[in-house]
Amino acid sequence: MIQFFSRPRSVFSAAAILRAILLIYGSLQDAFSPMKYTDIDYFVFTDAARFISQGQSPYTRDTYRYTPLLAWLIYPTTWQGKWFPFGKILFAIGDIVAGWLILLILRSSGKMPMDRALKFASIWLLNPMVAQISTRGSSEGLLGVVVSALLWAVLSRRIQLAGLLLGFAVHFKIYPFIYATSIIWWLDDEHVHGASSNQSKTLYSRVIGFVNSARITLATYSLLTFMILNALMYYLYGWPFLQHSYFHHLTRIDHRHNFSPYNTLLYLNSSPTGKSTAKLESLAFIPQLFLSAVAIPLAIAKKDLPSTMLAQTFAFVTFNKVCTSQYFLWYIIFLPFYLPSSTLLQKPSIGIAAGILWVSGQVIWLQQGYRLEFLGISSFVPGLWASSILFFVVNIWILGIALKDAASVENPRAKTIMAHKIQ
Amino acid sequence: MKQRITYVVHDPDDFNPSQLHLSPTNDSFTLDSVNAAKEHRLTFGLSELPQELYRVLRQCHELHIRWASEKPYASIPPYVSRISPGLHAFFTPHKGSPAYVDLLCPLLKKVFGDGLKCESPQDTFIGMPILSERFSMSSASQYYQLLPSLKDLVTYIQQKICATSDPSCQTHAASLLSATYVDIDYDTISHALVLNVFWDRAPDAESWTETIALCQKADHIEVGVLTSEKAVDPEDLAFSGFLTVIGKDSKPSPTRFSFPARHHPLPSSAPPTPPLTYTTSFRQPTGLHPTLLLSFPSASLTPPDETCALHAYLTLPAALFIDKYQLSDPLFLSSQHLTSLRSISGATDLEAPVWVVPEWGSAALLELAVPASPSSSNSDSDSASHSRSSSPPNPGPDDWTVRIPLHLRYLSPNANASGLAPVAAPWPAVFWACRGEEGAKMAASPFDRVNLGYEGLFGPKTMFYHVPPAAANVSSEVGARLVEEIRVPVLDLDQAWYVEWGTAVVVGLGTLWVFWKLFEIVRRDLVGGTKVEGEGKKAQ
């Protein structure tokens, strides 16, 4: 076991074999069983790619709500036959590249020995949930590469690349815009040049000092990338692109049951029989965005950027108006950076309790969902509502632990500076 | 007004011409205990109609209304075509006057009842799939709603069309209450409104004993009393019997004729094989993804001809829908004993809740799979295992069960119903569609019936062999309906009073908790910064 984690080759081979087995198993199940392994979304992507190959808009396919780039990316699937799993292979390769980037970050910025870094990278690389989601053909994993590459670029001060990746990520899936504030806040002179910011400054020089070249570069590159991609897609596919990729997410009702605490409220208030006293659900974006895009980055981004991004994503998903298990992948990518110094590992009792509560919150909800969806029992209240509230409370508690941990991480550089002073 | 009345005798051995009498003055015709099905066709000139009807019809290019009773019935040639029970409307607007089309829904509500969900043809009606732009015979749009009774139509006719001094008109209108199906047709070319009413048997009695009298001296009424004969050509239907034109003829004249028919009964099956019928049910529990089951005695699933394919035509209310993408995989289709989804139109959005769907619902044509060889199907492990594991109690092991996967939209929350809301779906129309040779001549048949929703989805030469619902054989069974009702879980408003403030309080407290954690961090930073330096000094 120790041997296994000491060599990158063995871990990456295992990750690749795991995905290869799932891909082969999946294509066999697809070929011989009426129950498909392949995710329904993958059929949406491949249908959209086929429309593109016929010179039509990808939005001709109902429920295609992604950037046309995704359909272009899996264009070879339109060559039929053997090419059908091309997209899944691409997503699986994306997983492994993301794992490699995680390892790079742990080794360089985390200053971690190889075997320890490989163990933590395995949370992503050898995670059956991650491997299954990408081999079933869901694109959520693809975002993992982009986000881990973004983090790697920022931590290794490749600011222009980071800007490109941030712009692309927001174009691809919107939610990564929350990382803009934490990265901008983190990019102070101390982090960019290693210069100490402890000298007392006037307010004026602080404001001027905030607008440093790294921040300007990141903002310019990300905005330009985002706008150019949007302009290009709008030029190619017109209004349906904006409607389905962006406005749909603003106007959707999300009345169908999901993990979000707002779910029952949305069902109630979007229906004509629901008599809403105040449209509280229309204010739902305020706590969500204020916490994930403003308060959390400002409070902790400078201490520990990867853990801040985990906390931001965790808060974003927890407070979102819609929440399904695919969204959990968005923060699982950050676990390898956060867990090494977390309370969850330092105090196993808390870690185990958090794990059990997080899983059982979902199990209780799923049991209510099963009663509704398959047995036809009206389990909306109290069943589904109470279990989504319970899951929300569990998530909030874990978020609190993560915030405290991220804040108490001792910045290695700050430590050295301090050590110099002490001497 | 022109009238044509046709009786088709159920049992030819039971019928004798002496049961028919023409009055000495030739102005009335009496039937004495004739056990038969009856069709009454009335043709009105536009000038004979009330102003409000005329105003709406003038804006229609075509309007065809079909209504069928929910009660099971046995069909008899030539009245063998079937539609799902309820009210169907097929409509093509007149070119150039779209504004008046908004009169159609208010009129339908006035005539058939306020309960109809109908806003306007643009919103509520669904487009009909067009097979061929040039040769299409079907209407542009389609409407459907479950409607158990025609009592509103009867009231409308009695109040708006019958003269108050005409008790026979009132009685005739009331007779619609016992009708098996009613067709109303209008198109600009004929400029006439045709009301066609069919009874599968005499209501409240074994047989028809009635007198048909002319209203005015100048009128003519055609009366035919027919029995079904075996046709020489399998594409034909043949009849013999007596035709009488009241007001013209002095005695019933014997007749014998045949014609190519679009709609056929099933060929009679050899004695050990039961006749082909079908049963519709929902797999229990229905959940949010109900599966509609169509069961057939598998030994009887022999096509009338090798060109034939078994089809089901579904009209689904908006609460239920078919996912066309789910029905595109051949493996999945065959596991459900389906061959393909041939056509689907209407409200097919996969995500919308019912309250944002303006259309009445959707219509789908499915081609059904049949056992590879009907005699060997009992040993077919696939069908046996499926019917054992998934069927409700009624289909037996010798049944071939076709499973149609449906999905439910979210319905509005309700109160006083323990969080359940009823959704009803009519039985589909099931038939073999076969290639015929004499398409053009079918339309010339005196009994041709088109604009049923599905026949326009096939080529003009197609013949239909209609499969009767199983319950048709036990039509005397009280309460049997060709409608399946399920209970759908919805949010129970009686228990939901705390959802709004409960969610707000929990999310609010959660937000405050996170703020508190962040506040602690920031405070420790501000205070702690000096503390660390202090500790540093101490260490020094």
UniProtKB/TrEMBL annotation, chain A:
GO terms assigned for molecular function: alpha-1,4-mannosyltransferase activity; GPI mannosyltransferase activity
Residues passing through the membrane, by range: 12-28, 83-105, 164-187, 218-237, 283-301, 313-338, 350-368, 380-403
Chief localization: endoplasmic reticulum
Domain of life: Eukaryota
Enzyme nomenclature, EC number: 2.4.1.-
Bilayer topology term: Multi-pass membrane protein
UniProt keyword annotations, A-Z: Endoplasmic reticulum, Glycosyltransferase, GPI-anchor biosynthesis, Membrane, Transferase, Transmembrane, Transmembrane helix
Known pathway: Glycolipid biosynthesis; glycosylphosphatidylinositol-anchor biosynthesis
GO biological process: GPI anchor biosynthetic process
Known function: Mannosyltransferase involved in glycosylphosphatidylinositol-anchor biosynthesis. Transfers the first alpha-1,4-mannose to GlcN-acyl-PI during GPI precursor assembly. Required for cell wall integrity.
Family designation: Belongs to the PIGM family.
UniProt name for this protein: GPI mannosyltransferase 1
Automatic annotation (TrEMBL), chain B:
Summary of the function given for this chain in its UniProt record: Required for proper folding and/or the stability of a subset of proteins in the endoplasmic reticulum. Component of glycosylphosphatidylinositol-mannosyltransferase 1 which transfers the first of the 4 mannoses in the GPI-anchor precursors during GPI-anchor biosynthesis. Probably acts by stabilizing the mannosyltransferase GPI14.
Membrane-protein topology: Single-pass membrane protein; Single-pass type III membrane protein
Signal peptide: none
A GO term, aspect molecular function: mannosyltransferase activity
Pathway of action: Glycolipid biosynthesis; glycosylphosphatidylinositol-anchor biosynthesis
Biased composition (Low complexity): 375-391
Positions of transmembrane segments: 496-516
Region Disordered: start-end pairs: 375-398
Keywords: Endoplasmic reticulum, Glycoprotein, GPI-anchor biosynthesis, Membrane, Transmembrane, Transmembrane helix
GO cellular component terms, A-Z: endoplasmic reticulum membrane; glycosylphosphatidylinositol-mannosyltransferase I complex
Protein name in the entry: Protein PBN1
UniProt entry tagged with the keyword Acetylation: no
Taxonomic path: Eukaryota, Fungi, Dikarya, Ascomycota, Pezizomycotina
Main location: endoplasmic reticulum
Homology family: Belongs to the PIGX family.
Pfam families, A to Z: PIG-X
GO biological process, one term: GPI anchor biosynthetic process
Keyword DNA damage: no
Localization of this protein: Endoplasmic reticulum membrane
